[in-house]
Design a protein that fits this description.
With about 400 residues, this protein is of the alpha+beta class. It has 12 helices and 8 strands. It folds into 3 domains: about 90 residues, Butyryl-Coa Dehydrogenase, subunit A, domain 1 (Orthogonal Bundle), CATH 1.10.540; about 110 residues, Butyryl-CoA Dehydrogenase, subunit A, domain 2 (Beta Barrel), CATH 2.40.110.10; about 140 residues, Butyryl-CoA Dehydrogenase, subunit A, domain 3.
Length: about 400
Amino acid sequence: MDFAFSPEEEAFRAQVAAFLEKEVPREYRDKRLTFFDMSAQSDWIQVHRAMAEKLGEKGWLSMHWPEEYGGHGVSPFYRLILREELSRYHSPGYDSIGCGIVAPALLLKGSEEQKKQHLPGIASGKTIWCETLSEPNHGSDLAAIEVFAKEEADCFVVNGQKIWTTNGHFADWNALIVRTDREASPNYRGLTFFLVDMKTPGITVNPVINMAGHHEFNEVFFEDIRIPKENIVGGLNKGFYVVMSLLDYERTTDTVYAIAATYLKDLEEYARENNLLNPFMENQFARFKAECEVARLLHYRCTWIQSQGMVPNHESAMSKMFSFELHQRISDFGMEVAGPYSQLTEESALAPMFGRIPSCYLRSFAYSLEQGTSEIDRDVIAQRGLGLPRLR
């Protein structure tokens, strides 16, 4: 594996940086917002959509796709470079679900008609996606989900509730996994994956405000919604296989190592400016910088595997788990760096870093839960990476 960037890739990075230098709203850069706390901004949805369309106009959201679907057939390292620069410039605009999850799933499992219908909207940045996987009683045990779709002549009728739906309050389309066979054994063979227009009658979206005060998540209710059969991806009762491939991409869609490294740099600047550094603190910063480098290389490894036409499995679980847990530790460390001031939110004129320290800390509790829990990641690493036996 050679992680050195080519001259063409370095030129692309410079091009992206110059674009973001001009286009990213100054407030977002001044506040040094991260991907995980941008939703606290009152104008986030509008800015996110506007930036997504600008990135789409550049062709950057899909350039690593095959040429027959509107891409340029370049290495997925171009996508990684774009995400790194977006993190560095504190920019919204990348639909992690549409670009990072749904598009790969469609390219792997979708029909030609589905690709032609949905990929252009994702590539242009004009269509925003959400996914409805988890339910109130079923998160990690995805095979046990209960939301049911009843087959009728030309469609399936869905009733039930999903939860933790990121961006569901403004998404245009939804990637939905539901049960279509209650008698299937084992139970994962009774699941089907659908593409759902969020304007479909019978869909209700209610906000879930996290403890940092952000509105990212939602609960979604389906009441007799009708989904055409042509919206099934991967075949009837084969949705579990679609989701398993989807999760391998979901765990590598966000460059969390870059987000964590940017936040760590901001913390170090704050500590230096306020004479807070001491030998212990310097040692902590050095250790976290080294761990950010480990996280970066783990992510690069997954991207390299994708560049070879393969899908990372336990490798993506390693990358996601290490990066997200590292960001948790850095967020906790931020509270230590700022001491009592770490509890001040942006409403206070005395709050360090525009009140981002408590915001990042409170938001970080979800890092070991989202995109598959750390416990599930460890299971994947143990069983598929190390060949260890199942314990349950």
